[in-house]
């Protein structure tokens, strides 16, 4: 391991450096939707709802060769300590777009020309890793909606706290740690079968070798996340019906 | 192959390995592996691997029977809502008898419900036909909505399941592939009972031995069941 | 908002059933669906609750923020309600600016709470003329299976009833967490909850399903509180274009009174936890 010592030798909540917070996932939580799922990591909760394929309006936005994916991400006003005004903002628009790119990489809408598949992601409670929880929920919801997908995607936030590489940053690590070299936040999404990177953002400072190492940690964590997603999809029981 | 519970697969999951297997609907080949390309119930018949979706929206396919409502009348046909967010078109040329422009509302009016066949699915829309026997306007009764993927279970193999319900309740039942089911009977209680039975089937759709459970449920409702030859449960494809 | 299309035969069937005091889901005309309340949906605000009548589901949360008072009420806190009929809840809702349904919903719920005096605005004053608490109630629809007005209204009340008081750190002029033992200043005696009645095929129906809602002639929302054991009306809203006859009025007021008497004690328990 390349990690130098630094000051962050024990995690704020006692987890191991490569440990993901406890996760809960459920499918079929919104009965009127075509597909829906919830995904929780630690205190972060995400709900995803899929509606479609359905006709896309206005007509000039339609693609005659394929359906399109449209993601709308938002945080509920009471999800964070300082109330967020309802409605879109620049952060939510950016997250919507990178989420859309990540999900589009595995979804195949060529059989549904001129349609749109809408993915709505809402966050009832936030404790860092919200876009990541949202993507994990959205992948399950898309599968649940019967959308053709070559594989699943799983998302995780990894990073560096001072000199220590960690997996699944919580709110303290993401926004409240400012000592020494500060914190670097790196959300990533991996495809389940081919293990390709479908989303990558980075905010902070990291060396190339540290980056490669943390990518390995992320891939490993995504195996655990994939298992949670698959279990939720396989254990739906008889509840997902109207 | 009678499973305790049907096997559910997730996109990206390797189903089987080997070049003798052929990927069908919902599956694809990746090297030696046949991989799930959709979430649903696995069905392998003679090396032909399919994944049958258990949830999700209805997407019209040619030949489907659907139930919908007239929402608009144009100079050459009727626009029909069938529960999705798009409408389908029934051309005046595709009804059993000649209708001139002035008779269109008399023949099929706003708000009336119809059973129609999906004739063609083009990029600009869905075209319908009502020419064949068994299709046309429906009156009276009630329409219930179920997840379209549960329709094969309601129909049963060669119509065996829907026959059990009809015999027990005395109601007429027409099942649309779009998840709309029309129920019509002589009294309200029979119609409600039919609705309950269908909802029971939908709630237990992924379990094997469904026919027996349904017969027990009907008995518990206080109705008689004509013992029907129990058809094998190892396929999901219900044909009309 | 796209239309929810009900065929004529379905409308006729619903009305025929109602003539026999039956409904398609087995309920009687005045029967409510099962009520489920879940607390603690978010711990980052004063409260966040999930409320369901049958499959209609809403999440409502309360936030308190430091603010300056309005000039004409220097010793009173302020209050604002938002409601989002989010497109995740139904095929009919669109993304973008709130439609008239969201606006009406938010305003009706806001008035009901504000005018009843449920929130003790003077109790929200920190320093007269300078600093008060601003109370936000935010409602998000999760699944619409009819009667969103009543579910959202009740969710707002429960969110307020269970809201924890923020701890004000005067030295640093900020909020330092919540007092788990103290609620926000409310006048519990004026608690008032709303019930919406629809007229369908000549019959009066409570807690409508989505289909029933689409075909009704009018809806009448009545909010009532407790006046020494008797119901007292605190707010009303009639919606849709059908007219209320005198006979309708008698029937609905009688029904509202009897439903209130049977439901209020339970509602009160849910609101104050």
Supply database-style keywords:
heterotrimer; B: 240 residues; alpha+beta; four-stranded mixed β-sheet; 5 helices; C: 273 residues; six-stranded mixed β-sheet; 12 strands
> What is the multimeric organization of the chains shown?
heterotrimer
What's the number of helices of chain A?
Answer: 4
CATH architecture assignment name of chain A: 2-Layer Sandwich
Write down how many β-strands of chain B occur, each being a DSSP E stretch of 2 or more residues: 16
How much of the polypeptide of chain A forms β-strand, as a percent range? 25-35%
Count structural domains of chain A. 1
User: What would the principal axes of the Cα set say about the shape of chain B?
Assistant: flat
Low-confidence stretches of chain B: 232-240
Tally of individual helices of chain B? 5
- Tell me what portion of residues of chain B adopts beta-strand conformation: 25-35%
**How many beta-strand elements of chain A?**
9
Biggest interface pair, counts: A-B, 40 and 36 residues
Q: Which whole number gives the mean pLDDT of chain A?
A: 92
| Helix content class of chain A | 25-40%
* Sheet/helix structural class of chain B: alpha+beta
Please summarize the sheet with the most strands of chain B: 5 strands, mixed, barrel
Give the CA-CA distance, first to last residue of chain A.
Answer: 52 Å
Radius of gyration of chain A: 18 Å
What do these coordinates show?
- The complex is a heterotrimer of chains A (242), B (240) and C (273).
- Chain A is α+β, with helices and mostly antiparallel strands and 242 residues long.
- Chain A has one domain (23-233): Ribosomal Protein S5, domain 2.
- Chain A has 4 helices and 9 strands.
- In chain A, a hairpin with a 2-residue loop joins strand 6 and strand 7.
- By secondary structure, chain B is α+β, with helices and mostly antiparallel strands.
- The radius of gyration of chain B is 20 Å and the shape is flat.
- Chain C has a single domain, classed as GHMP Kinase, N-terminal domain (Ribosomal Protein S5, domain 2, 2-Layer Sandwich), CATH 3.30.230.70.
- Helix content of chain C is 28%, strand content 35%.
- In chain C, the strands form 3 sheets. In chain C, strands 1, 2, 3, 4, 5 and 6 form a 6-stranded mixed beta sheet that branches. A 4-stranded antiparallel beta sheet of chain C has the order 10-9-11-12, with helices on both faces. In chain C, strands 7-8 form a two-stranded antiparallel sheet.
- In chain C, a hairpin with a 3-residue loop joins strand 5 and strand 6.
- In chain C, helix 3 runs parallel beside helix 5 (246-272).
- Chain C starts with 7 loop residues before the first helix and ends with a helix.
- The mean pLDDT of chain C is 94.
- The chains are: A alpha+beta (242), B alpha+beta (240), C alpha+beta (273).
- Chains in contact: A-B, A-C, B-C.
- At the B-C interface, strand 14 and helix 4 of B face helix 1 of C.
